[in-house]
Amino acid sequence: MRGSVAHQVHQVFETVKEIGTSKHEAKSLARAGGAVTWHQIGKEMGVKSYATLDAYRDVSKDCFRYAKEELGVKDIEKLSGEDVKSFLESKIDAGVAHATLSQYCAALEKLEVALNRYGEQNLTGQTYQFSEAIIEVREAGRDLDRFEGTRAYRNPRGLVEAVRGEKFRLAAAIQQEGGARVSEANRIKEASLMGIRPDSQTGEVKGWIKVQGKGGKIREVGVQPETYARLEKEAANGRFEFKTEAYRNALKAAAAASGQKYEGSHGLRWSWAQNRHAELQRNGKSYEQTIGQVSREMGHERADITEHYLR
Fold it and tell me: How far is the first Cα of the chain from the last one, in angstroms, to the nearest whole number?
């Protein structure tokens, strides 16, 4: 299939668009076709509301965009279970909540249904099976909300130094020194480099980078002047960018080489939060002041989210 990400996803989801039709009748047809469990029945049914359809399409566009940019998949009909698994694993690495991961999984299960219907209707002969990959990721992410320990690296600087590849090492340094999400450390434009100045909280001289976080929030993250200089050089031709799938693999290898458990790219953000918290307290701030400051610097809505990182 040709066309933009949005166009291809829209075309595929037209096959499961059943707005205004009877749910009861759809369930009966699913059971008549051999579906027994609620999960099986759900997979056989189409989408009955515009809100759900929009939500499923948004996740599918996100997944397809990831597959296109990171894995070179330009045709949604060539999307595989491994591609879907890689996308979901990247979301776990980014620190999504268990409920959010479940929503992604549900949307991509419906994408599987939509692709199979599209193949049947257009006689392509292609079939899709994402279920095994999704089950594996669900299992890996089952404790995202219940986790009570820390995902911070024991030796984050050692991890960064063990990363192979200049771009990947630079990305890791930005996350470790500035607390940036992996999405914020990627595709940094030259215009987002805000110069070198003292940290308003500690007086330490840093290079500042403007990033856009969740919900479109704009903030600045500070890194060491040496890291900033490397970033200036990399972004001189327009922007600094890297493949997140390859970056994740580089971090896994670096964790093994430095004798640490792999905690994903988000583990560097955990490490930064704990180090920044301790640094601000050493500079005379109270616990409440420190939590508030770190929360703002991480781009969090609530301070209790930040406390989760300090365990």
Answer: 48
